[in-house]
Write a structure and sequence with these properties.
Order of helices and strands: EHEHEHEHEHHHHHH
Shape: elongated
Number of helices: 10
Helix content: 40-55%
Number of strands: 5
Distance between the termini: 58 Å
Radius of gyration: 19 Å
Largest sheet: 5 strands, parallel
CATH topology of the largest domain: Rossmann fold
CATH superfamily of the largest domain: Response regulator
Strand order of the largest sheet: 2-1-3-4-5
């Protein structure tokens, strides 16, 4: 029985050749294609694909946000990220959201099709480079303060930038994400650390200066 595949990709040319790869293989059938996250979130559960190829950098809602919203209502569907992002933050965020595989867009056709089969059969396909980045992420020294261990890697990075005095817009530009995303991260940091202001959050970190970037300085909000 063929594997049903859907695609979430806002680049029409990329979406087209991915669709052709699926259509030209007897092992797969193309179920649906979406050019943005909003329409995918609204309609993909009714399509009921076996595997979804997801780009991260979508216009509007990001691919990671799509997976986070869709996975709880599509438990049997496997989400395979296909993106240009190779940094550890995007990798961890995508896998934490519910993706079970992570490939770079430079991956060859045969590898992508093999990865679709692998993720459908219960595997977690990744490029070797991505696997190494993921290993390095988990091998990094974690902050020793117990109250900081509740933060995700992305939240910890946002908090580190807050201690350097960066404003929200500067943090968003530095991490390549939107302002609403930074607002969400900061809100979660405040909730997890049980604080109400930037100053209180920074004070939770300043007793552990060895964990901060060199020359860190706090600017209160």
């Amino acid at each position: 029985m063929s594997i049903g595949v859907s695609i979430i990709e806002d680049d029409a040319s990329v979406r087209e050749f991915l669709g052709l790869w699926i259509k030209q293989s007897p092992d797969f059938r193309l179920v649906s294609e979406y050019g943005n996250g909003e329409s995918a979130i609204a309609r993909l559960p009714q399509d009921n694909p076996d595997v979804v190829l997801v780009d991260i950098n979508l216009s509007g809602q990001s691919g990671i946000h799509c997976v986070r919203k869709l996975k709880p209502v599509m438990a049997k569907t496997q989400f395979l990220m296909l993106t240009v992002y190779s940094d550890s933050d995007h990798i961890v965020d995508a896998l934490s959201a519910g993706a079970t595989g992570y490939l770079l867009k430079r991956t060859h056709r045969e590898e992508v099709l093999a990865a679709i089969k692998q993720v459908h059969e219960g595997g977690s396909p990744m490029n070797s480079f991505i696997a190494r980045k993921l290993v390095q992420t988990f091998q990094r020294e974690e902050p020793q303060a117990p109250e900081l261990q509740v933060l995700s890697p992305r939240e910890w990075e946002v908090l580190r930038l807050l201690t350097r005095g960066l404003m929200y817009k500067e943090i968003a530009d530095s991490l390549g994400v939107s302002m609403p995303t930074i607002n969400t991260h900061v809100h979660r940091i405040y909730q997890k650390l049980h604080v109400r202001t930037r100053t209180e959050a920074i004070n939770r970190v300043t007793p552990f200066p060895d964990k901060l970037p060199a020359g860190a300085a706090a600017r209160t909000s």
